[in-house]
Design goal:
Elements: H1 7-14, H2 27-39, E1 48-49, E2 52-53, H3 65-71, E3 84-87, H4 93-100, E4 106-110, H5 113-126, E5 131-134, E6 147-153, H6 162-170, E7 173-180, E8 212-214, E9 227-229, H7 231-240, E10 244-250, E11 253-257, E12 262-263, E13 266-267, H8 268-273
Parallel strand pairs: 3-4, 3-6, 4-5, 6-7
Antiparallel strand pairs: 1-2, 7-11, 8-9, 10-11, 12-13
Bound molecules: S-adenosylmethionine (SAM).
Length: 277
């Protein structure tokens, strides 16, 4: 449902670009926005909707602004015409940030209706045209075409089948992948041999050796946290899915290009599922 703002506010909005500081906001409209934010349930993304925060008490602070602050400079200021697919878009923070930089078509997908409704409300309120669709990363093939930017942020560790999903994501990346995952264990990388002897058990005692921690029950009270990589595993999986890491703006975020997502002219995933990899 779209919040109806006062005509004076709408008139002012139509003459104010989203990047300009907001010169006005009738108290009544802020009340209306605050009411609607509340009706849409608990938010994970703290967005600023004309001075009204959507998640001011987030346990990670001003999230995901605290994260974006370290990533923003690694993304071009001018994204005019670029297409964007935001997988696991949640309340729409990253979709909106890309749109603020002039991106053309922006599609946000998520499995959770609550988050999708929040994202729709936020985008409409801020005056951005973004398509939000209910779709799992596992069904991302149903979104046609490739995108200049694919965002796959904060989703991998929520999946029971992380590499299966990453291989699917690889098929949608026409330009760059912005990838983020929670990291636990070693935050260092090290050089590893391409192969080890069957009886070499020492490498598995190395703290930096690529490792995925399996969470049987819950982590941070969240039973949807399944596999949490250390840094070596995160970077190893990206390379294994055919990505070249071109930037690493902060510990948990990588920018990648899909340089080797196909082998012998076929996607890694197709080869694997056919038993031909
Ligand atoms: C930790 S939040 C990350 C949100 C946002 N991308 C970010 O980085 O701030 C994880 C999001 O992934 C969504 N999600 C979980 N499983 C998914 C799936 N199979 N396909 C698409 N989205 C999924 C959740 O609903 C949630 O919105």
């Amino acid at each position: 449902m779209q919040t109806r703002l006062q005509q004076s506010t709408l008139d002012a909005l139509s003459t104010t670009t989203p990047n300009e500081p907001q010169k006005f906001q009738a108290a009544a409209d802020r009340e209306q926005i605050a009411r609607r934010i509340g009706e849409l349930g608990e938010w994970f993304h703290n967005l600023d909707l004309y001075g009204v925060p959507t998640a001011p008490k987030h346990f990670l602070g001003d999230f995901p602004n605290v994260k974006w602050r370290h990533i923003a400079a690694a993304v071009p200021d001018d994204l005019h015409g670029a297409t964007v697919l935001d997988i696991g878009c949640n309340g729409g923070f990253y979709s909106i940030e890309m749109k603020k930089r002039g991106a053309g078509r922006v599609v946000g997908i998520d499995v959770d209706d609550r988050y999708l409704n929040q994202a729709r409300f936020a985008a409409e309120t801020l005056g951005f045209e973004i398509e939000f669709q209910k779709c799992s990363v596992y069904a991302v093939d149903s979104v046609p075409g490739k995108f200049d930017y694919v965002l796959f942020m904060g989703v991998l560790y929520h999946l029971r089948y992380p590499l299966f999903a990453l291989d699917k994501v690889a098929r949608k990346v026409g330009g760059k992948l912005l990838f983020q995952t929670m990291i636990r264990g070693s935050e260092q990388t090290a050089a590893w041999e391409e192969n080890y002897h069957f009886w070499n058990k020492d490498i598995f005692r190395e703290h930096d050796f690529p490792c995925m921690y399996f969470i049987e029950h819950a982590y941070a009270n969240d039973p949807t946290n399944w596999w949490i990589p250390n840094r070596g595993a995160a970077e190893g999986m990206l390379r294994s899915a055919g990505f070249e890491i071109v930037n690493h703006p902060e510990l948990e975020t990588w920018i990648c290009e899909p340089t080797r997502v196909k082998k012998r002219g076929r996607y890694i995933q197709d080869l694997e599922l056919a038993g031909e990899l």
